[in-house]
Amino acid sequence: MTAQSAQGRLEGRLALVTGASRGIGAAVARRFASEGAQVVLTARTVGGLEEVDDQIRQAGGRPATLIPLDLRDFDKIDALGASLYERFGKLDVLVGNAAILGTLSPLGHGDPETWQAVIDVNLTANFRLIRSLDPLLRRSDAGRAIFVISGAAARPVPYWGAYAASKAGLEMLAGIYAAETAKTKVRVNLIDPGVVRTIMRAQAFPGEDPESLKPPEAITEAFVELASAACTRQGETLAAG
């Protein structure tokens, strides 16, 4: 155990991060590990997960548990809770970070398959994660669920139909979960990361200079705050930007 992890605010806590192979998810995973957490990382890209695990180990963190997972495979999400229970007996932190952009286009021109994929990953997968992992979060002495939302859902913006609708739905989903857990030790909150240098941002704004944007590492403090056992927030949205 390193001196850094021994003093970390997440020492001894088990945290699952979705979309952890790159961008915000990878930055949060590295930061959680540096704060002493044991991290469970999911993403579709095995190589990306292994790279993040290597970075965690090189920084002196505990080796991560890697779970290659396509969040559209709902049966595997359903089985995830049982697998984590068998191995760890509980879960302290869930970070629902994974998302896809889809295609920015007029609603009337939208492809139904693309719409469904965006809704599946950004919204339905988080419902399935709650359904699968809520019993484990309740077994923790301080269960924490954090969901990543977007300013794109703050008001109607042309061409952002599927993505904005999915994130607006996620806000409501998380708010309901927070209301349902208000009298428990589980705390459920949301983070709006703001404008961050990610591959998704580059897809949405291809003419933008990525070097003018803050890196994902710059917003991880908000995640640590909401993941800590000391957090008392419930049903709130924290702006990380």
Summarize the structure.
It is built from eight helices and seven strands; from the N terminus they run αβαβαβαβαβαβααβ.
Helical content class: 40-55%
> CATH H-level name... which superfamily?
NAD(P)-binding Rossmann-like Domain
State the CATH architecture. Answer: 3-Layer(aba) Sandwich
CATH topology: Rossmann fold
Question: Strand fraction band?
Answer: 5-15%
Specify the overall morphology. Answer: globular
How many E strands? 7
Low-confidence stretches: 1-6
Structural class: alpha/beta
Distance between the ends: 32 Å
Q: How many separate domains make up the residues? A: 1
CATH uppermost class: Alpha Beta
SSE succession: HEHEHEHEHEHEHHE
Rg on CA atoms, Å: 17 Å
Strand order of the largest sheet: 3-2-1-4-5-6-7
